């Protein structure tokens, strides 16, 4: 029994067997031993929300290959910092996507939109918790760049 | 040109230090397929990339890897904070690291081999470089 390329089954002819010596088993009559494939990411792919994106490590469900098939992403703390991180992650992911899909106008529109949201969220965060960039440090009344906590301190995530 | 942002890409908040785990995780910082190697690999390979899409990706991903490096360092830092003498002495996995680096963050493989550019490649050949990227990083991400 052979499965033809159109998916229907038939009894293999002697000629097919002769020209395809590997045609054993439930495979198309002329299938190679292994057929890898690489799907290309198409325009306007499905996207996660920003917090889902950050906790899954990708903006795109189509690119989400969970480690050890664990479906749920890590949980994000409900903090202004995590909200800012989520927005920045979407901007970063859209930037990478646009590197290879520069003509996807919908994605470019989202990129502009999230960049504006990130800018606003960053300004709100900085006004409360201090500068994240040198530029913001220069906008303050005094030099607050050195104020604790630093990003690697356990405390940064305690208080914010 | 790079500007620093005073925050991590993803929150790192480790309540319970665990030096044994730190001795494993350090490889993701300075091991052959760690984040330091990843960032150096992409940021070095981009000069030989002939296509704009590839220049963009290698630059943006290489930059992102620098942020990953910082997160992994923060993990190691938090896993090794406030250690007692006993916790170090009774830990055959972490104590060899402690001999030279105490609780400092040092780019090394878990085996103790320090980070080396010998674990990355930049051939000037785009296909060879991208193939190496796949081997090192599983994917270009």
How do the helices and strands line up, and which of them pair or pack?
The complex is a heterodimer of chains A (160) and B (141).
Chain A: E1 2-3, E2 9-10, H1 14-19, H2 50-56, H3 80-100, H4 105-129, H5 134-139, H6 154-159
Chain B: H1 19-30, H2 35-45, H3 52-79, H4 85-89, H5 95-101, H6 126-137
Structural write-up:
The complex is a heterodimer of chains A (160) and B (141). Chain A is an all-alpha fold and 160 residues long. Chain A has two domains: 1-40, no CATH class; 50-155, no CATH class. In chain A, 44% of the residues lie in helices and 2% in strands. Chain A contains six helices and two strands. Chain A has helices at residues 14-19, 50-56, 80-100, 105-129, 134-139, 154-159, and strands at 2-3, 9-10. In chain A, strand 1 and strand 2 (9-10) form a beta hairpin. Mean pLDDT of chain A is 81; it is low at 1-18 and 20-24. Chain B is mainly alpha-helical and 141 residues long. In chain B, 53% of the residues lie in helices and 0% in strands. Chain B is elongated and about 55 Å long. The mean pLDDT of chain B is 95. Chains A and B meet through helix 3 and helix 6 of A and helix 3 of B.
